[in-house]
Amino acid sequence: MKHFLELKNTTIGYSNPLVSEINSSLELGEVFLLMGNNGIGKTTLIKSILGQNKLLKGEISINGKSIQKLNSNEIASQIAIVFSKAEIPDNYTVTDLISLGKYIHYPYYFKLNETDKQEISEIINKLNLSKYQNKKLTELSDGNLQKAFIGRALAQNSPFIILDEPTTHLDEENKLMILSLLRNLAKSENKLILFSSHDWRLAKEFSDKIWWIKDKKLISGISEEVILNNPELITPKILNFNQTFHSPEIDAPKLEKEMMFSYLQKNFSQDLRKFKLTFKNDFWELNLDNFYDNCHNFQEIKHSLQTLIKTGNSN
């Protein structure tokens, strides 16, 4: 079976491997989330798929053809890329930017034909950018600017769109809008969407499958199954940045425990190991020997602890 994008025994990196022995495939109509910590190889993997990085081992093929054997125009006809920190052309309008996507098919001195112009107009409407079509890019909000760059990618008519951190610097409303748009494009126009992010929540809501780079390997699979098999993806991690802080015993669900630890280490330098905090029925029970106090929020906990410490009851 021929897959749209296939990686066979692929190792990527530079002088040393970043990700080794990748065997995975991507299909049209699917949304993939690429996850991994900074510096672990996400951007290198994207550049390798684009043919910009030489592979250390193996092969990457698109529609059965090796990426290494395709020229830049052939790759652009198959793959459109949207970067999170793209340069904004001076004095360009939304229409100007989206029109640039057509010039992978023509020399720069060609004029777009009426069919091209009609398609650009349809893309602008689809992205709800009609009232901004003649506005300069520098006058757009972050969300609308990101939509305009996605519009340029759509104008390429490439079946595969890669987005490197497309929701960086976006507020929650624009983030949801962009990701809903991408999922609708994948399903309605049979496009393959691959986007990178640090936010595992996006996997569950928007992606069909995950690519997760971990320990120099690529874990791939249906989003929900990858999360279930790798609970560390969603397990809160308590970061002890205050090395002199001694936490009380905290009996609570993982998220509440993480938030309480975070709050206490920012607000107390004292040794709190004699205290115990228990989360029950939406309130916190503070315990010290035979002393109990029910606190309904973090401020009440802080006040109660400070009082006990000040009066010497913690000794």
UniProtKB/TrEMBL annotation:
<dbReference type="InterPro" id="IPR003593">
    <property type="entry name" value="AAA+_ATPase"/>
</dbReference>
<dbReference type="InterPro" id="IPR003439">
    <property type="entry name" value="ABC_transporter-like_ATP-bd"/>
</dbReference>
<keyword id="KW-0547">Nucleotide-binding</keyword>
<feature type="domain" description="ABC transporter">
    <location>
        <begin position="2"/>
        <end position="240"/>
    </location>
</feature>
<keyword id="KW-0067">ATP-binding</keyword>
<dbReference type="InterPro" id="IPR027417">
    <property type="entry name" value="P-loop_NTPase"/>
</dbReference>
<dbReference type="GO" id="GO:0005524">
    <property type="term" value="F:ATP binding"/>
</dbReference>
<protein>
    <submittedName>
        <fullName>Iron complex transport system ATP-binding protein</fullName>
    </submittedName>
</protein>
<dbReference type="Pfam" id="PF00005">
    <property type="entry name" value="ABC_tran"/>
</dbReference>
<keyword id="KW-0813">Transport</keyword>
<dbReference type="InterPro" id="IPR050153">
    <property type="entry name" value="Metal_Ion_Import_ABC"/>
</dbReference>
<dbReference type="GO" id="GO:0016887">
    <property type="term" value="F:ATP hydrolysis activity"/>
</dbReference>
